[in-house]
Amino acid sequence: MHSPPPPGQDRDAPGPSPDPDGWWLAAIMNGAFVVLLAGALIRFVDRHPDSGRLPWVIGLSAALAVLQFAGRRPGRRREPLPRRWELARLTALVACWIVVVLLAPSFAWCAVPLIYTGLRSLPTRAAVALVAVLAVLVVIAEVRLADGTDPNLVLLPPAVATLATAVFVHMRRQTGRQQALIDDLIRTRRELAATERREGTLAERQRLSMEIHDSLAQGLSSQRMLLQAADRIWDTEPGTARGHVRTATAVAEQNLAEARRFVHDLAPAALVGQELDDALRALAAHRSEQPGLTVRCHVEGAPVPLPDRTRSALLRIAQGALANTAEHAAAAHATITLTYLDDQVLLDVSDDGRGFDPAAVSPTGVRGHGLPAIRARVRQLGGTLTVESAPGEGTVLSAAVPLEAAP
């Protein structure tokens, strides 16, 4: 389906050439016109050398040749004449041809290239009318040249003109439809590219928000808790308070490394130089050093190599789950369990905190950014997320990721 022409545009306006590289067809038509014109002129000069019409015939032949090539630049890339000049050229060309045919009927078959020129330059209806006039004049000229009555002289020119016109009009319409389809495809491709750019922008924003939440925001939250704990016991337990400050400093250094790698879009700092198992154990040990929460880590099954994308996402999921535990659950103990199965890897994070009602938490994140970010990461890996919890009974978060899902 193609769009209708804009308001004010003639539906029968001349379209593009049937062949995008139609220069060769124009060259053939121009060459045929010159050959027919030269043949008719030679015939007239040979048979009527003393005719008083000879100067007129020679002059009109020269005028026809000049008009046929007027404004035509050599080569394939030729700029067309402005429309008003093209119509003026065609009018002068047809007028000269009519006069020379009345003077010398042998010029009648020069109408064949003129038919092509008219069909290419005029709207369809005007071109058909011009072809009809040219066909009638050719019939008259052929009858004048003939010695007797021949039905072919009356039937052949209209038949040839009708056939040529039908083929050209059909090709023009086919070309118009193809051009409209190409325009639709180009427009659709541009719209699709714009949509992909918008979706890519939104996905990148979501990724950035998750990365910031799972790395920098968690580190800042840990520093705040450590510094608040140090402030409360600074006068009574200065040694313990200094330990909290040193731990906060270590967290700040880790956050700085995360920020630098985050800017360069590299893997999490905890995964540099070690596997996911070691990174989870280091995460559990680091969290246990902070007051109020003890974290253990278990690895079950035979470890298998995981894609970087899966390793990074599972580590972020564990970090986000522990951050939720520390911030919302008021738990004393938490456990990270990484299980390798034949076709998937499971990450479970459980705690003994206050729990909550999962049905009361909307997927869009009424409870904060942590759980929606975890859901998004698991969904990107083609996995499933299960949250089991109840008020007063703790929480178990389980992420199952297929091993073949991540590239």
UniProtKB/TrEMBL annotation:
Q: Where does it live in the cell?
A: Cytoplasm
Q: Which residues form the Histidine kinase domain?
A: 207-405
List, alphabetically, the InterPro entries matched: HATPase_C_sf, HATPase_dom, His_kinase_dom, Sensor_HK_TwoCompSys, Sig_transdc_His_kin-like_C, Sig_transdc_His_kin_sub3_dim/P, Sig_transdc_His_kinase_ChrS
Record-linked Pfam families: HATPase_c (PF02518), HisKA_3 (PF07730)
The record, for CDD domains, names: HATPase_UhpB-NarQ-NarX-like (cd16917)
One annotated GO molecular function:
4 iron, 4 sulfur cluster binding
Tell me the PROSITE patterns matching this sequence.
HIS_KIN
Q: Does the keyword Kinase apply?
A: yes
Q: Which UniProt keywords apply?
A: 4Fe-4S, Cytoplasm, Iron, Iron-sulfur, Kinase, Membrane, Metal-binding, Transferase, Transmembrane, Transmembrane helix, Two-component regulatory system
Its Enzyme Commission number(s) read: 2.7.13.3
- Regions that span the bilayer: 23-42, 54-71, 91-115, 127-146, 152-171
Q: Which domain of life is it from?
A: Bacteria
Name the major location: cytoplasm
Reaction(s) this enzyme catalyzes, per UniProt: ATP + protein L-histidine = ADP + protein N-phospho-L-histidine
Query: Which GO terms of the cellular component aspect does the record hold?
Result: cytoplasm; membrane
Keyword Zinc on this protein? no
Name the cofactor(s) required for activity, per the record. [4Fe-4S] cluster
Report the function annotation for this chain. Answer: Member of the two-component regulatory system NreB/NreC involved in the control of dissimilatory nitrate/nitrite reduction in response to oxygen. NreB functions as a direct oxygen sensor histidine kinase which is autophosphorylated, in the absence of oxygen, probably at the conserved histidine residue, and transfers its phosphate group probably to a conserved aspartate residue of NreC. NreB/NreC activates the expression of the nitrate (narGHJI) and nitrite (nir) reductase operons, as well as the putative nitrate transporter gene narT.
Q: Which PANTHER family match?
A: NITRATE/NITRITE SENSOR PROTEIN NARX-RELATED, SENSORY TRANSDUCTION HISTIDINE KINASE
Q: Please report the name of this protein according to its UniProt entry.
A: Oxygen sensor histidine kinase NreB
Annotated organism of origin: Actinacidiphila alni
